[in-house]
Amino acid sequence: xxxxxxxxxxxxxxxxxxxxxxxxxxxxxxxxxxxxxxxxxxxxxxxxxxxxxxxxxxxxxxxxxxxxxxxxxxxxxxxxxxxxxxxxxxxxxxxxxxxxxxxxxxxxxxxxxxxxxxxxxxxxxxxxxxxxxxxxxxxxxxxxxxxxxxxxxxxxxxxxxxxxxxxxxxxxxxxxxxxxxxxxxxxxxxxxxxxxxxxxxxxxxxxxxxxxxxxxxxxxxxxxxxxxxxxxxxxxxxxxxxxxxxxxxxxxxxxxxxxxxxxxxxxxxxxxxxxxxxxxxxxxxxxxxxxxxxxxxxxxxxxxxxxxxxxxxxxxxxxxxxxxxxxxxxxxxxxxxxxxxxxxxxxxxxxxxxxx
Length: 356
Prior knowledge:
Layout: H1 2-32, H2 39-46, H3 48-53, E1 57-61, E2 65-70, E3 73-79, H4 87-104, H5 106-110, H6 115-124, E4 132-134, E5 151-156, E6 159-164, H7 171-181, E7 187-191, H8 200-209, E8 215-220, E9 228-231, E10 243-247, H9 254-264, E11 269-272, E12 280-286, E13 292-301, E14 317-318, H10 342-352
Parallel strand pairs: 6-7, 7-10, 10-11, 11-14
Antiparallel strand pairs: 1-2, 2-3, 4-13, 5-6, 8-9, 8-13, 12-13
């Protein structure tokens, strides 16, 4: 009997912790999420989890009432909180609605313990494509992709080609060393095809190497929040040698920030295809040891103020759909995987040598 009592007590406290996580979802989304999301919207979005758990349930609402139907019959009515800005009142309403549904639906009752997590996942679904709710959160997850060399530098026809697959810790130092090791190169190609981003500080440091001054990027949060600017210090380490940045449909995030800055500051030409279009800042908020919210809190902007997210960058010279520099007139800019296309490199070399 003691074991049973301990187990029941343990389950009660665990469920109570989950129930409390509902309120944290409301507070975090209301205070930190980049887009305006009212408590009413959070409630109705979250309670869709009841309908997904049992298709016999239907949740609907008017301006003042929340209704739960079961098998097309009214089962429960709740009064909505009088104001939208009291998160704990809306969280309490959601807990009451879940409890009421569990009493009338065997399926909801079966998953009663999981409903707070199901509620949160439903709220986060399709928010902006980058915000997520994790109920088995881990800081690191194994990659399904084959591990490839992240950094490489080589000379081709007196042009230095630097390949970066991501901005990992210390990679800016490798780039600087490559530039110093080949001081006689006629120009530089930064190959960012397939680069999904990484550490922003590394991308900013690399961008700074090629600029004398100016804005690299800035972030904008909710209305009323001051933007945060990232700027370049004086000194182009290459003395303004010709510079090309190769991009493709999988160039994203910090890689797009670098490419946009060098392009808009008239320092580099972009060659390749349209980029991915991922320009958001995510903060991870832990709920407990196994739960966390990854929340979009700001957007990145190019020096001229253009949004990157969902827009991407358009190259000056497009290489999509061609396999030879001689076919350049037939190329398009449509997003494509150009990671291993040597054609793009050869076009970049020709551009640096003024042979296009």
